[in-house]
Amino acid sequence: MPIQQSDVLYTAVATAENGRDGRVATDDGRLDVVVNPPKEMGGSGSGTNPEQLFAAGYSACFQGALGVVARQAGIDVSGSTVTAKVGIGKNAEGFGLVVEISAVIPGVEETVARDLVEQAHGVCPYSKATRGNITVTLV
Predict the structure, then answer these.
(1) Sign of dihedral through CA atoms 34, 37, 38, 44?
(2) Of 125, 100, 54, 124, which Cα lies nearest the Cα of 116?
(3) Radius of gyration over alpha carbons of the chain, in Å?
(4) Rounded to 5 degrees, what angle do the CA atoms 54, 57, 61 make?
(5) How far apart (Å, rounded) are the C-alpha atoms in residues 65 and 115?
(6) Which of the listed residues 15, 29, 42, 43 has the most CB atoms within 10 Å of its CB?
(7) Among 82, 55, 64, 81, which Cα is nearest to 124's?
(8) How far apart, in whole angstroms, are the C-alpha atoms of residue 84 and residue 70?
């Protein structure tokens, strides 16, 4: 269910100049990066790219969601890591994304860890936003 504008707790604002071959900056000045297409897509690869930025945001958000569901279950996930691999490729509509989320949760039994990752996928805002739009694989 979509949230209402009155329920928004925080809004991030970023502006891009020259698309995939330019610059992206946030309005508060905390992020200001050069973006270039990766070499695999014909770019210089000298800056970051939108897929890397998306992977960074998704992994951080998913790690937060993992912490929430683990706390609710009374399970310690300190020392855990979440890695997001974001791929871009051609599809029938032009280009599309694919994501692989992998989590390492030391000291937690594998079946319990898998369950926590599934639960985190159910509550992570990035997972909710991409559900039904792109393929997301959990590892």
Answers:
(1) negative
(2) 124
(3) 17
(4) 135
(5) 13
(6) 43
(7) 64
(8) 19
Q: SS3 for 122?
A: helix
C-alpha atoms less than 13 angstroms from C-alpha of 108 in its C-beta half-sphere: 22
Q: What are the structure tokens assigned to 118, written together?
A: 């599934």
- Whether the per-residue pLDDT at 1 is higher than 80: the answer is no
Helices in the chain by DSSP H: which ranges?
50-73, 110-123, 125-130
- Spatial neighbors of 51 by CB under 8 A, at least 6 apart, are 38, 86, 87, 88, 97
pLDDT digit string, tens, across residues 70-85: 999 999 999 999 999 9
Q: What H or E segment, with its residue span, contains residue 137?
A: strand 135-138
What token pair was written down for 34?
């050069």
Specify the residue for token string 């939108």.
Answer: 50
One-letter amino acid at 58 equals: Y
Residue with tokens 């739009």: 133
Contacts of 92 (CB under 8 A, 6+ apart): none
Predicted local distance difference test score (pLDDT) of residue 82: 98
Residue 107 near residue 45 (C-beta atoms within 8 A): no
Question: How is residue 71 written in tokens?
Answer: 């706390």
SS3 of 104, please? strand
